[in-house]
């Protein structure tokens, strides 16, 4: 059977994580976020976690060899038997070629189009529940009962250590150098949809609904 891969593309801060979780619930497909997977690896103490930390904390890309292996494992697992939502991968042409080699997948690319200044403000404000992972932003979306997570009532909130201004600039530069040329190629390699990620969360959901319903 053909698996569906929904691949979310866009600048750091363009809302892929937030919308990836919504899409996952709506379509009953797992949300595979390579950033979340790497953060889990970094929370353990091992040689691999130290190596990953070195790259991520400096805003660099983790090696293609490791990333391709991690994603291949997920794609081959029972959880992803019907497909999945890929967020944060592929990030360069080598990684794109790695998923294109899967013959039994139908790939839909969704590009979250956003201006860099807005992305920067979103990143500088974002924080997350340390227990369930729900995302918030100190400028736009605080927990309803401030101090307690809307989802799980935890009082434990965390900021990402790689969300500081100089590291973000480095991540934006890498995005331009490595990811944008790949996105140009994606337009030729699968169905390609663009959403205006500068709109409100709810309006982006509506745009995504249209993409899913029509296709
Ligand atoms: P963002 O999209 O905001 O940059 P992510 O959570 O997707 O955040 O990724 C955080 C960091 O994890 C990246 O800056 C990078 O160091 C590393 N990373 C995530 N995905 C990949 C990937 N596919 N290839 C290499 N490194 C990755």
Please describe what this structure looks like:
- The structure is a single chain.
- With 215 residues, the protein is of the alpha/beta class.
- It contains eight helices and eight strands; from the N terminus they run βαβαααβαβαβββαβα.
- The chain has helices at 16-27, 34-42, 47-56, 64-75, 93-100, 116-125, 165-189, 201-214, and strands at 3-10, 31-33, 83-87, 105-113, 126-129, 135-137, 157-158, 191-196.
- A five-stranded parallel β-sheet has the order 2-3-1-4-8, with helices on both faces. It has a three-stranded antiparallel β-sheet with strand order 6-5-7.
- Strand 5 (126-129) and strand 6 (135-137) form a beta hairpin.
- Helix 1 (16-27) packs across helix 8 (201-214) and helix 4 packs parallel to helix 5.
- It is globular and about 45 Å long.
- It starts with a strand and ends with a helix.
- The protein binds adenosine-5'-diphosphate (ADP).
- Adenosine-5'-diphosphate binds next to helix 2 and helix 3.
Attached small molecules: adenosine-5'-diphosphate
- N-to-C SSE string, H for helix and E for strand: EHEHHHEHEHEEEHEH
State the distance separating the first and last CA atoms: 17 Å
Count of beta strands: 8
Biggest pleated-sheet summary: 5 strands, parallel
Order of strands side by side in the largest beta sheet? 2-3-1-4-8
Structural class: alpha/beta
The mean pLDDT is: 94
Shape: globular
Q: Strand fraction band?
A: 15-25%
Helix amount, in percent? 40-55%
> Oligomeric state of the chains?
single chain
Instruction: Determine Rg (CA atoms, Å).
Output: 17 Å
Uncertain runs: none
If helices are DSSP runs of H or I spanning 4 or more residues, what is the number of helices?
A: 8
């Amino acid at each position: 059977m053909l698996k569906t891969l929904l691949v979310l593309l866009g600048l750091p801060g363009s809302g892929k994580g937030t919308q990836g979780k919504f899409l996952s619930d709506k379509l009953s497909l797992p949300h595979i976020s390579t950033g979340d997977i790497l953060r889990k690896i970094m929370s353990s103490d091992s040689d691999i976690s130290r190596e990953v930390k070195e790259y991520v904390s400096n805003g660099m890309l983790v090696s293609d060899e490791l990333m391709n292996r991690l994603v291949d494992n997920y794609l081959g697992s029972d959880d992803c038997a019907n497909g999945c939502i890929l967020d944060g991968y592929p990030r360069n042409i080598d990684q794109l070629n790695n998923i294109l080699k899967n013959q039994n997948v139908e790939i839909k690319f969704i590009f979250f189009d956003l201006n860099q200044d807005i992305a920067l403000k979103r990143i500088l404000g974002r924080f997350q529940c340390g227990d369930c992972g729900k995302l918030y932003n100190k400028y736009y979306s605080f927990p309803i009962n401030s101090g307690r997570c809307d989802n799980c009532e935890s009082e434990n909130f965390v900021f990402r250590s790689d969300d500081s201004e100089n590291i973000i600039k480095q991540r934006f530069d890498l995005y331009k150098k490595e990811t944008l040329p790949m996105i140009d190629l994606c337009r030729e390699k699968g169905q390609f949809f663009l959403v205006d990620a500068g709109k409100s969360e709810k309006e982006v959901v509506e745009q995504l609904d249209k993409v899913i319903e029509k296709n």
